[in-house]
Records
---
Amino acid sequence: MRKVTGVFSRLRNRHFFMLDALAFLCIPLLALTIRMDGDVDLSKFGYGLLAVTILFTILKLSLFYYSGMYQRYWRYASVDEVAYIGIITGIAVIFQTAAFITLYYVDFLPLGDLPRSIPLIDGMITFIFVGGIRFSVRLTERASERIVKSSGHRTLIIGAGKAGVSLVTEMQRNPESGYLPVAMIDDDKKKHGLQIRGLTIEGNRYRIPDVVRKHGITKVIIAMPSASGQDIREIHDICRMSGVTVDTLPSIFEIINGEVKLDSIREISIEDLLRRDPIRTNISKVTKFTYGKKILITGAGGSIGSEICRQIMQFSPSEIAILGHGENTIFDIQQEMLKMIRLYHKNGGNGRHVPEVKTFIADIRSESRLKIIFDDFRPDVIFHAAAHKHVPLMEDNIAEAISNNVFGTRNLLFLSSRYNVEHFVNISTDKAVNPTSIMGVSKRLSEILVMQTAKRTGKKYVCVRFGNVLGSNGSVIPTFTRQIMQGGPITITHPEVKRYFMTIPEAVQLVLQASVIGNGGEIFVLDMGHPLKIEDLAKDLIRLSGLECGKDVKIEYTGLRPGEKLLEELFISGEEYAPTEHEKILIACNASQIVPDGLDDHIEKLFIAARRNNERVVREIIHHLVPEYAPPEVSDSGNNNNGHKNWRGETTN
């Protein structure tokens, strides 16, 4: 059997051409034999049969060749190929019939009494032969897949939708992958008892324990990219009680191009347990926004910046410039994007314009360096994701937070207006709302600067404000994971501390959506859902690690750190919020009107105070610019030096 399948698997299009030619020379005779019930008088039909055989063979081979029939990879033939063969054969029948009727009534090549149904019967036999010989490759491939049984995990697939079927198909095509699919589960009652690619759909999720015992399952894979976190959590708990390991496919946010591959399978993460409903994405608007544009992304090596790079690649910009201060993270995203570009070229672009990628290592605080980059790249759109974000660290490094988050943003805005950049999208944070930290107030000042520039220039400069993203650099998830690996304890500041959370791909999708909505001078606030207790996240992570909270890993409370709140906020008093065309995005319509008087002078004095590392004066100025800033109690000693003048020009003691 393996020898037979090996022969078929080695068939190439040149072999199909020769087989077709031989078959087409025989098919008219077979068609006549069928038409005459086997009573074929060659003395009567011979001359006409020879004429149509030559004519039909030339017609069909020419049509098949120029239609691309001999440029297909038949090993993975599907229903699309069946339709394709049917269409080409139907066209061949039309040409054959026209030629036959022409010859029938013209004396040039007399066909005698040859039946006029011959072209149709010929076409039917051609379709059966061409389809049969080509699909024999696919059938023998399937047969070999069943013969070469994998010695890997007996696998149960959860989800009999498009993703589940694609996953089973890939496993059967690649038996060496280590997965042997043996059954499927789906909550849709209409599918129960049906078979897909030889696998029976055994029932809903509550049948998992029985199916595991019945088939000796050693691995479960959740193939439901659009499933909610609640569903993932429940299935994970059922599998855990059944004693089997469970993996998953990425969420729909992560599968941008819709392709399901075996290397997409991964362990369940905390992000999966917190999945929300898929976002409605207006792809046409985002494509129109980015198509053919030169896009600059600052902080491109960070969590949000790198994801913007990945998603922007899908929407056909002409060039992408990735800018960052840390060479290692910029190198990583550069290599990832170059790999994506190679794959696009390999697949003919997948219908997309494949952008060029430029890389810039730069500090946004250096206006001269940024000017060189703007001269070189001339961006049309800027996504500004570069910022210091770690709250406690910025409390200890106030001058650094102000210089990077405020003056770095000011530099970018100054050059953007000078070089006529049409769109500027500033990534902000919920910590900018009623800030209690230096990091938060520095981001609030960056928002105000964007609003001021939008008001001055009339250009489409906007801010997008949202809360924490799961898995970002410095977030609680990597910290908790590391503490679990070390055996604990997990340290939490307070048992009641809550945060808004969103996955990185979800946040970036909404950032792109907000970008196309904005007309300039707006702050967009993303719908973050309900705030989550950090303690609950820690307990979920412990369970995902196969451990028990309190027994294997303990939780300890350390107290709130400087600048931290129990609960972050998303809305600022005085801002007027309204819904947008996207249900998960709100807009602060009057944001550009809330710009303090004399902002430029105050910002310049803030710059001088930060450069001198005069924390007292820095706090005075930012409190004046952001009255809602409520800093923690600070010592008067600090880094302030006696004799310095404050931002009003008054001497401090």
---
Amino acid sequence: MLLAATTLLLASTTFAAEDWTTPAEASDYQRTPRHAETMAYFERLDAASPAVTMIGMGRSAQGRAMQAVILASDGIATPESARASGKPVILIQAAIHPGENEGKDVLMALARDLVLGADAPLLEPVILVLLPIFNVDGHERFSPYNRINQNGPEAMGWRATAQNLNLNRDYTKADTPEMQAWLRLWQRWQPDLLIDMHNTNGADYQYAMTWAFESGPNIHPALVSWQRAVFDGAVKPKLAEMGWPVAFYVSMKEWGKLSAGLTEGASTPRFSVGYAAAAGRPGLLLETHMVKDFRTRVAVNAVLLRELLREIGRDPGALKSAVAKADGERFAPGVEIPLAFGLSEASEPMDFLGYEEVRTPSEISGADWVRYDQDKPVTLSLPVQREITVTASSPAPAAYLVPPQWSSVIERLHLHGVRMQRLPEARTLEAGRHRFGEVAWAPRPFEGRHQLTTLESTLETVEIEAPAGSWLIPMDQPRARLVAQLLEPAAPDSFIRWGFFDAIFEEKEYAEARVMERIAREMLAADPALEAEFEERLKDAAFAADPRARLRFFYERSPYFDSAWKRYPVLRLDGEALRGLGL
């Protein structure tokens, strides 16, 4: 181990340790507490210190109460007073995947030490919003068999919610009551930094902690600069000095084969730190290593969070300034907004602290059995792909317009804190609209939905009547980057990709052959160009041999065909159209 597992986890304290020992500590890191025991501990802290305030967030799918814990040295307990204080607000969440439990146990001990112990000075420059158990239903699906790859504790929660949904894939679509509660908390408190605590799977290596944060075109440059200065420039070397080296989140180019190299890409906003980036906030994903024992995983989290709070406290204004710059970001009409991202083939070498890999042919699987010899630490030189490319973008409109009938989309936009207003009356206007061609869905559900995997699109200009009550969404707002991620079809986590607009791909009327036979003849007689087009299509043998396709050729070109089929109902307005609304 890089640091003995018996390392003291707690700062020196000014309170009776036996009164405030956490369940994990009391069990010598053999067990983690259940939901009721966890929240009872925070309730005791709330009663013991004016620096602690527990707040309700809502209820889970099974009806369990979701609670957050506010820590503020001066007793601040509301978003309004937090903003008035000028202090940065930091949201630290754990147990979004409750099998990966140690974040919750760390927050219990950290909260105690910040409000009752020697770490109190670390709390003075900041306000913390703690979410000890995000996925409360998954947490209570308690079993010793929930994390096959993980080294302790004796039992823990389950990865998914009671609806079998992964909350760390739900940030944009917000299908779960848990995520909807989180978004309301996020909008009310508007944190300046998100920290999301996890436990990783994958290969074995020496690092007890890896982390990830966004640094590509999916996040404002001011936030990138702040993250690099604080995370990489200050906290990382300090942790290394203390015997806790940190590496970027281990994402193998080939699963189970470290030697093939690593990748460091950009997260889409379905994920926590990807969402924070789209919403104009820095985010830090913490991933302890599942092979390390429970005590070690708690220890590295505790050390890291204290060092991070110490570093932020040295210059809290730097974080506030970076966030203000991100909030001031605007995309003028026509400026390209990056929507989807990939990696170039370029790579650079990285020294990686691993273990000697042992591969033996397996008579069980027929493949290699991969093991790691922890008695033989090695430093590997691995190629890392980290040059992020933009694979899809769109010129920014001046505004979007969403018709009122798409209520589930409008509800989600409100949850995401998007600024918008309603049209008081129907208006005819010129707008951009996507017309879709080839469309295909994933054959299996993913997170409760069948995602669109193929979506061919052409942007056309139309004159159209927008109904009264339509929602106008100007891009002159802090959430502009997020708005594009939610509404642009090319964005991988857009509402249309998640199936919110699937009904536009269904045909509700059809033409009988006996009727189209007559109408087709009338159309051919009236339009020589159409006749020439039809003759050209007949050169395609498959088309020529298909009576239904031949009649559909005419139906699609007739005034009877559904003009809304495969037309995206979300309109794009340019500056002139927006000004013409006079709103």
---
Amino acid sequence: MQITYKNKRLENVLIVANALISAVVAATFALLFGFDKPTLFGLAGPLLAERILYALQVLLLLAFIAEKAIRLSNSLSKAEFLRNNWFEAPLLFALLVALVGAGHWFAAGKAEATAVRHLAVGVYLVIQVVTKLCRTSVDLAASGRNPTQTLIASFLVLIFCGAGLLMLPRAASGQNLSFVDALFTSTSATCVTGLIVKDTGQDFTLMGQVVILGLIQLGGLGIVVFGAVFALLLGQALTLRETVAMQDLLSARTLSRMGNIIAFIFVGTVCIEALGALGLMGMWDDVPGRVAGLHHKWFCSVFHSISAFCNAGFSLFNDSFVGYSRSWGLYTVVCPLIILGGLGFGVLYDLANVAVDRTKRFLKRRFDRKSRLSMQTPKRIQLQTKIVLAVSALLIVLGAMTILLFERYASPGAVGPSDVPGAIFQSVTARTAGFNTVDIAAMSASSKFVLILLMFIGGSPGSTAGGIKTVTLAVVVMTVIATLRRRGEVELFRRSVRVVIVGRAITVTLLFVAVLFASTLALSITENSNGFTMDQIIFESASALGTVGLSTGVTGPATPLTTPGKLIIIATMLIGRLGPLTLLAALTFNLKPARYNYPEEAVIVG
């Protein structure tokens, strides 16, 4: 909802002031909780520094309240402003209850009352900063500028903020992270890749692991989508411009149901990840003593459920899921999470709509006979959904069969998955999830080549997965078939595909190939002294570009990877997450299409 203000200059001043106040709020939390003891860079002792920082947070709280009051008086319509900020009144009331009630109604001790007051102020500040950040992300996406530039900027801001948090002393176990290692970990988490240079379970504290988990969730769904979700949760309707921006970012086709799609993404994500966490709770007992305590089990379940659904591949165990290769929880919980995350929210939304429609029709035919004749035509599965489901199923089956064949018969000395469940798991996880139940480096060369192909293809459009995407593969393959059959149009499920879609699919494929070769060449130069083979380097490049996370030993906690090599993989992961076509669109957004054509002349190809 767009609010009109009387004094535009005053509103611009408040926007800048909000940004500065939010930055100071973030800095106070970092100084309070990011170090072993609260610090003001040696200017005061820990106790005095803590008091000063808490006092500063109170002043920042008053600044936020003053900002709201000024905006209310500056708004053209007071009712519109109050309607748009309806949650501020209950939030302030809850804060007042906590401040006044501490020491009277609850937290009787003086120390406890002080802690409650600090917690209340901190929660209020966090809610304010998160609200403003989400609103800003949606406003920037709807500003009329190139939405892809907003998407790229949001990822870069998230990556650098995550790197800063991971560099805090309390985020890492033992010695502090270097900037490059923190940037690598933050990029890998935000781009839901899973490649690591530090052991997630051993080299990071609980705070660092929570930061990584937050980056995975935000990076998997996109911070702009979270902004829209937050706005809808607060009862704020999206403007037409905001809806168009969200349509572009989500690759959706209609504007009318954009709010429903965003709500479905949020509710679906929460429900799927919650069910996944519940399903994983019993799996940790399969390896006695590895996950001790109920709290640790819950955290492992939540962490791996989010990591699997977002296709991130981060694990709290140094051998990923090798220790749980015989656990059926991998195949009944983790595999479905990976597949659902890789199908794409548009496909899940379409399947949910069709399922609801079929259920309603069944109930009407069963219990409401009068409405049988007035029922509308049943909803059908869209072409996009058919392509995604067909190609995904085909890739999983073919991938599992080839891996099983190569590991069992073609390379009997290799230590790969020689059973059907193991082959299926590696076929599923290679399409951008990044978990493994066997040592990837010990697999046969032919199986690793199959994994490279699966990583290159990736998941589906609009999902948390990377790669060229399943629909792109289908369009390219059907273009070849149409050429061989001398058909004038590319056909899929008795539907014709537009020429512009064919051109885009070919462009995406060629750009991915170009980036893969470029990153492989660059790594072969920077890692020449480390003794890595070319198949290891191209595997790592494909894993980074497909945002997968599988590794043959080039990356890892004990890797000799050079700093330039880490920077190359960082850039490759970012390109793979955003997509080369997105980067190209951001660079060529202002180019105007030519309004003329040159004369045609035949050329010979093939």
---
Amino acid sequence: MPDIIQLLPDHVANQIAAGEVVQRPASVVKELMENAIDAEATSIKLIVREAGKTLIQVIDNGKGMSQTDARLSFERHATSKIKKAEDLFNLHTKGFRGEALASIAAIAHVELRTKQEDQQLGSCLKIEGSTLISQENISTPTGTSVAVKNLFYNIPARRNFLKSNTIETRHIVNEFQRVALAHPNIAFSFYHNENEVYNLVTGNLRQRIVAILGKKTNEKLVPIHEITDLVEIKGFVTKPEFAKRKRDEQFFFVNDRFIKNSYLNHAVSSAFENLLSGGHFPTYFLYLTVPTNSIDINIHPTKTEIKFDDEKTLYAILRSAVKHSLGQYNVGPILDFDRDATLDTPYNLKDKSLPNPRVTVNQDFNPFKSEEQKSIQFPYHREKNREWESLYNGLDSTGIDFKSETVDPGLFSEEKENSKTYQVHKKYIVSSIKSGIVYINQQLAHQRILYEEFLSNITVKDAMSQQLLFPLELSFNKTDIVLIKEIKTELESIGFLFGEISNDTLVVMGMPVNIIESQIPSIIEHLLEDIKNDIPNTSFSQVDIMAKSLSKSLAIKTGTKLDLKEQEDIVNKLFLCKQPDSSPFGKRTFITVNIDEIDKKFNN
């Protein structure tokens, strides 16, 4: 029987490795930026075109590489960080496996330009699909520039699985933010399709967070700092009143490396217990420094998961540190829940004695004076105010009955008997029909009504808008502002009016008539999250997602008590919809029970 096991060719092995390392353009951004950081760069520039499908270029001013190192960097498992197996458990750098450049070069066109400081000329390598095309000496600045073009050009199946440009760009922005937040001592810049997205100067951690998420973030931050023998924790959490319905602003860094860890996330969430309303999540930027031999970062290809030696102790320390900071800055609850802080004595008046209040009394006041004496004291005499009585001259005393009108109690009972709808458990509306009874889910039915109204307003006619007495200024990060500008026209067609839109703020001048001002921040926040998570390629589908998101945010919720008029209004509007039997998300809005089914229940 012939042998069937054989070694894979290098170019096939590289493509298999690329499947682990390069999942999408954002993976390339992460690997190249981490290599630049390992090269001790103080300034890193990221250039992206067409969401990374056409070009991803990272330029740094780091140490650079020699001609030999430049060529070896594209070989599999070629690394400068690992010399023996024990080094895997004592890592201080980002990249260490030596698979990144080899995997990227296997599925793209790569051009590398690099020069060391003590060299007069640098090197330029061009590689396509793991094949070296050329290597020559060139004049180039100190540092390294890696340009990755035509990603997945030789694996069309992988390229077809990429999402829309907007989604891929969002993933690139997320990776850029994670790297930039981990290294505030490095200057970063980011350009997409020749447009500047970020230009971050060096600074401290708070300055970097504010530069990325907007200037309004500064007032929301609560600092945290705790040092123990096991771990040093520093960073910030946001105040509970600024909690969001999304988790995309939760950052854990271990030894300056971004990680995902649901166990530690639960520790932070438990520290906010009883401080957050349902469905809201805290925002945090937490940096943990632990001994390198107490963690294993080689358990996942993307190196975003870490295994700790003593997770339980780390959990307790992290939870305690967050609770301590919330209490220290008067964010957490106190023992005296009835205490009103506004009634506390100001610090500068704490040791001062206050004068007794003075009471003044009118000595000439006499409540037993006669009516005539009183009338003389007041400037308005009774006679001067009798002109209004002339309005009734000539009227028959029987013409007007000034007695209070008696209400016949039978009117209400009759209305009760003839009522067509009833609310059950503040969740369902029950109404009788010819064949039996219909049960309507009030929340899902209202979603269908609002959904079709918003679709009509966006695509056919403009909705009414109500002007705000005072313009409302909202803070967003730069990527959200870009998305708001893209959907601005659609938002205005449903009733929103906007003023100035800057890099991190949005001024709302008006809103649709069916919402209240306090709902505006959460509505726009939910809308942006829905669009970012599932943005399609066609503008019509984007309008559909907007209508669904707004209908979900504004629909009456289960547990809302409705009066008779509101119940009938939902029933009437629901059955005027084009698809009354399902909500915008495919759930049934009502069910019917006919008389025969009811009779069977009693006959059994």
